[in-house]
Amino acid sequence: MILGLARSWSLTGYAIATLLVLPLFALLLQAAQPDEAVFGHLLSTVLPTYIANSLWLILWVSIGSLLLALPCAWLMARCEFIGRRYLQWALLLPLAMPAYIVAYVYTDLLDYAGPVQRSLRALFGWSSPQDYFFPDIRTLGGAACVLSLVLFPYIYLLARTAFMEQSLSLAHASRIMGCSPWQSFWRLSLPMARPALAVGVALVAMETAADFATVNYFAVPTLTTAVYDTWLGYGNLTAAAKLSAIILLVVFSLIGVERFARRKQQLFQKQSRIQAIDLYRLSSMQTLLALGYCGMLLLLAFVLPSGILLSYAINYFEQSWDPLFWQLSVNSLTLALITSLVCCVIALVLMFIRRVSPRSSDALPSRLASTGYALPGTVLAIGVLVPLTLLDFAINDIADWLGMAGPGLLLTGSTTALVFAFCVRFVAIAIGSVESSYKRISPSLDMVSLTLGQSPRRLLQRVHLPLLTKGLFAGALLVFIESMKELPAALLLRPIGFENLATYVFQFVSDEKLEHGALPAIVIVLVGLVPLIYLNRSLEQDNR
């Protein structure tokens, strides 16, 4: 019966996977087309600058995020001090803040007309920029600082988990041998955490390579802004596809370097869940330093931007609380809800085929479907536009051949393109969540059900689905939040006259009027807090 299911459903799995990787192949085919006019001009003029800025930004954000995250991860995992219980989950909150909103807040604070420089001029009697030096935030370095503040929790979360799972016997041995906490960290814990750190840095690097809104607001020319300008400015899809292919090369190179660096690493350790974690108890001065560092980082990355957003939302509440705000909220919620449901259905089908199929080749569709998560939003938009445009033209040609009125831009002129792009990008999240839940289901349940005469379909409905409810909910929740926040793909693929909260806020940010978009921004941040709370509760349950 299982073999019959594998043969009948494997084609379905491959069909779904082919549909989800179609944008990638379409992008590569479009990039292979000749285009000497626009791309040749870019190559001979500004493209080297775009590439250099992108690589430097990735490097500085990776280093900055690593330096910010490591002390926090070590303190939360291996030290005991007042406030640690609350800080260990509060340090995840910056993930809920869109980077371009943080960029605007700090630009408003630190620009020449901002309160910081005004206070300095009033305090020291300066009258012009020539009287003093103040670093310009709208630079490559400023973008790196903002992105580091937002992205460091990726490394913090993985590093904290790695430190907590390290063997207690090794920690005890280091103490017996006279190692101080600093020596134990530097010589023992840090080398053992290298695999987790490598994964975290790779995630930060890919998110940096995919960022569009922050670098666009800071006027830092990178490959992502080049794709946007080439498509909308020059109207040249082929040149934009070629630039997107370069971004893909950078992203997959980062993935390859991360895996190559860990190719010979083997780590064997045993952590007893019965034995309590032996924490270093900090002295009063050390506690003050730890609280000062973690508190200042949390203040700069989340509390200060959130407080300013909240003050804007209160002061401009009457201007923002209007029918348009409700319409945009409905648009965002509907788009995110449809995307999360479709992704969960796809993940459930692909992982069920992988679960019951006796053939190793049937694990390939779920892996192929997960590759879309590595595609930046601007790159994904190009890849989605190419096949859907061809399909739109084909539908209209068929209608014309039949003597019927063509439907027009049926796919690219509606939210269908957005839903498809979001599914390609975020289905990997749902697949990962369902896969994690499947690992907790014993294969003996499948055998017992089939032995009792249950068909594979009823096996899925009556056995798997009830046990997968938690994983499906978690995957749907994460996909929902990511869809609410996704900006580049929404900017490039939205139909005429369609806006959601993310594009609406970005327009106000671009026009230097975030005050009027503060209420929608607060909604995005609050919705982004939901999965962080859920994640924190899951981690607390796992650590009990």
Automatic annotation (TrEMBL):
Sorted keywords for this record are: Cell membrane, Membrane, Transmembrane, Transmembrane helix, Transport
| All copies of domain ABC transmembrane type-1, residue ranges | 51-256, 329-535
Query: Which InterPro entries does this entry report, sorted A to Z?
Result: MetI-like, MetI-like_sf
Organism this protein belongs to? Shewanella cutis
Record's protein name = Iron ABC transporter permease
Record flagged with keyword Transmembrane helix:
yes
Checking Pfam families in the record gives: BPD_transp_1 (PF00528)
Q: What is the lineage of its organism?
A: Bacteria, Pseudomonadati, Pseudomonadota, Gammaproteobacteria, Alteromonadales
Query: CDD domains this protein is in?
Result: TM_PBP2
Residue ranges spanning the membrane: these are 55-77, 89-107, 137-159, 196-219, 239-257, 288-314, 334-353, 373-395, 415-438, 459-481, 517-535
Q: Where in the cell is it found?
A: Cell membrane
